[in-house]
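Technical note accompanying the year-one report. For the benefit of new consortium partners, we illustrate the data format agreed upon in the data management plan: each record pairs a sequence with a structure-token string. No post-processing was applied to the example shown here.
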Amino acid sequence: MTSRENETASETWQPKPPELLPPWHTPEREELQFQARRFAMDEVLPVANELDPQKGEIPASLLDRLAELGWFGITVPAAQGGLGHGVFEYCMVSEELARAWMSTASILARSQGLGTAVPDADRRTELLTRSARGEWIGAIALSEPDAGSDLAGVTTRAVLDGDEWVVTGRKRWCGNAKAADFIQVLVRERDPEEGESRSKGLVNLLLEKKRGEFPEGLSGYPIDKVGYHGFLTWDLRFDGVRIPRDNVIDEASASDEVGDAAARAGFAEAQKFLNTARVHTAARAVGLARAALEDSILYLQEREQFGHPIGDFQALRFNVAEMAAQIEQSRAFYRQVAHLLDLGVPCEKEASMVKLEATEMSVRVTNQAMQLHGGNGYTTERQVERHWRDARLTTIFEGTSEIQKRIISDRLLPRSPLS
């Protein structure tokens, strides 16, 4: 290495990661953030760089490490073996993980007490404990070929046959389905009656299964995606799959009339899940955008043109400033909405707002990062193309940007009688 190269290397500035400032700072949160950051950069990032280009799945060893750290139970009460934190900490850790590989942040959403709201209290406690230990990782089957944004249009049918539900239909976009311990399936047990909401008659059922296998009557194929590697996303067919009658995932299912209770609560439970999921998606989007920014800062110091590092050119410096400001804005917003969720404040509008703003921001920032990298950004030799591919999906899953705009506008602007 020449003296000039030595001088340049010694002067290379490393991007400073975000700090937890008041009013959000506590010593416990600061320690958790630092732990997540170190784990993401030291253990997750090397695995992502190796496996993502191969469309590889998250290895069992990495899942075991996530379990050791307790992050499958961030929001599970301490009494059931979890960390007992809230949505704020869940999103904070997820931002750090998404900065390295979005899939590791996403796999956390398949735990956190998911698939545990069964009628029997003792069994619920058992499942919560397993969830916190990373031994109850699931999948969510909501969407169908003709029902994605419109969940009330679900047609997959569940019919009671003695002590079992018999499920028939098709689900699409079910991430982690085969590798999961269970699949939470949104089905229709009856059609809505005249005058009822279209969502009446929907039920969330719990399909228990072995990891790496499909039970009798369930088949499917993995969807070939542009990005979001790390786990497979499935198109599933249910052909008479049998699920125990009591495996209804709703708070209301404690009623003796399981079917009626589920009909009242099934759609509401799915919507409640989506509110937290949308804030979690915002945090993941911020992590991706931050990764693109940090990689760009390093690259702008490394790449030389016209006798200067290209980071000396004002136009590119202004790009960095704009990217950083947009990321900081979205981070502040997701922290605020996560805080509201932890307080129990109804915030469906705000959850949609932050999901909309953070994900669209992430697409803009990762796209700009690709431009700053020039031709090198359009290769798989740099991580920035992964951040760009994954960011593009965040505007689609957990409700598209267009659906978020509809939710927000419907709560701000009444429709006329002519609508």
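Partners are asked to follow this layout when depositing records. The first strand starts at residue 138 and ends at 141.
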